[in-house]
């Protein structure tokens, strides 16, 4: 594979010196871009887009044509794993993802398909290989998966939830069943991310979208424990380089000190945590990724620039910061405001890396 021309993102994840703070955005390939909407229409549906390697590659590269991002992220969905396990993923207009089957008993668990990522999610691996080829070493490619807890919430609830009643009932009233499901998912995610690395992913992110819905004790027992298991088993090298792992728990700012011990190289934080406070909490143990409020992109370009400058100043001098949003970009954002965001990071951050 082609030699990497821009490794700023990978170096920052490993807390190595960089000339400026690298930047990318969660959901940077998405509905805010008119070219994405056109490609999705061409594909026929969101799932068809995910399963078409050439089109998944196309939408992955679209933001890189507009913006000088320091990383690309595989275009896919966190729910590909439960779908491959046989739950029947579909998308209801205005309702988000849904499953035709749920997992609420040992019998449901026993009825899940056996899982082998290379075979059952071959379309994802095909997309990874296609994207790596087309990137031609321009920037690193990030692979990803949902965390076991987050995947389990969708599998038990049958889709999105506001109160997580079914899964929390399972966790607190049937902990053996809950741990059985989470253990199965940890094995599946490890296999899935390892397969992505073999196919060409140069870093991976674990999206723990619903970890913040748990209590402190519940988070350690049902979420963090299983992410630690995955990280400890992951393949560690790609193209002769260490493959960094990023853990992102939305709503997990109060547990940063604990999350920093999980074995990941970087921890993503949402916008509710001050990044300067976060840096004080984690010290030199991990890099930090984040954390501008995605809604800030609805503000004027000048206000966006001010916010970027403020976050960079809060983090301060030195490496170990990857600039990102505190969650995914919102569909209605003006693409020109993303230009202001990225340009501001590139303009203001070099001063914090002088002498590194």
β-strand percent reads 5-15%
Number of helices: 16
The averaged pLDDT comes out at: 96
Q: Major sheet: order of its strands?
A: 1-4-5-8-9-10-11
Number of domains: 1
By CATH reckoning, the class would read Alpha Beta
At CATH level 3, the topology is: TIM Barrel
Q: Report the strand count.
A: 11
- Overall 3D form: globular
Give a brief description.
It contains 16 helices and eleven strands. It is an alpha/beta fold.
List keywords for this structure.
single chain; 356 residues; alpha/beta; 7-stranded parallel β-sheet; two-stranded antiparallel sheet; 11 strands; globular
Structure description:
The protein is α/β, with parallel strands linked by helices and 356 residues long. The protein has a single domain (22-274), classed as TIM Barrel (Alpha-Beta Barrel). 48% of the residues lie in helices and 11% in strands. It is built from 16 helices and eleven strands. It has helices at residues 8-13, 34-43, 46-51, 53-66, 80-87, 106-110, 117-120, 122-135, 148-157, 165-173, 175-199, 216-233, 256-259, 275-282, 301-315, 335-348; strands at 72-73, 89-92, 96-99, 141-146, 203-208, 237-238, 241-242, 245-249, 266-268, 287-289, 321-322. Strands 1-4-5-8-9-10-11 form a seven-stranded parallel β-sheet. Strands 2-3 form a two-stranded antiparallel ribbon. Strand 10, helix 15 (301-315) and strand 11 form a beta-alpha-beta unit.
